[in-house]
Automatic annotation (TrEMBL):
Any one GO biological process: defense response to bacterium
Record key words, sorted: Plant defense, Repeat
Pfam families for this protein: WHD_DRP
Name under which the protein is recorded: Os05g0365300 protein
Disease resistance protein winged helix domain location: 29-99
Highest classification ranks of the organism: Eukaryota, Viridiplantae, Streptophyta, Embryophyta, Tracheophyta
PANTHER family, alphabetized: DISEASE RESISTANCE PROTEIN RP (PTHR23155), OS01G0781200 PROTEIN (PTHR23155:SF949)
InterPro entries: Disease_R_plants, LRR_dom_sf, WH-like_DNA-bd_sf, WHD_DRP
Organism: Oryza sativa subsp. japonica
Amino acid sequence: NLSEPKRALLWSYQKLDPCLQRCFLYCSLFPKGYKYIIDELVHLWVAEGFIDARDTNKRMEDTGMDYFKEMVSGSFFQPFSERFDSTVYIMHDLLHDLAESLSREDCFRLEDDKVREIPCTVRHLSVRVESIIQHKPSVCKLQHLRTLICIDPLVPDLPSSLQRISIVDCPNISSLPDLPSSLQHIYIRDCPLLKESCRVPDGESWPKIAHIRWKRID
């Protein structure tokens, strides 16, 4: 029993190419009102394998930019403000609700300390809670978890199945925990202490990420 606006949004979503649908649903990992930075989001889409790579004459990042522009033209994202030399975008709450409802088996946002269970099917998890300690058992038993986005704080004892981790806007984190050998991708943004710790070649945390194939620290 969807309302008329929600039916219209669902129809717009269903008209998207499947690659764009995956990219849209992935955005449910970020909280409502989140300020999306194009480069950051496209980087994550590429890392997740959401970008169609059949056009070998075009960089996947450029294809990802095209995806984003198409969703902006379809009003899935709206420009919010300027950030340095780029525009920051937001997603309307109703669209965010749609993304969350359609991706609940695959994506989960942990932002409430009252949450006791995380669906066992979750492959992509974002964390933004006061303390991770009480949630650690639930996170560590997620056998299908592939992606972790830490908005704050960082999860210790990361699951062995983890392939990608993004650490965003965590100014108090100064070092990395031991990382699973399965990790193939790490992205760090707006974490000044951690950025210094990951400095090449003598940062405290550098030996923990030196072997990772894809790393970006902004």
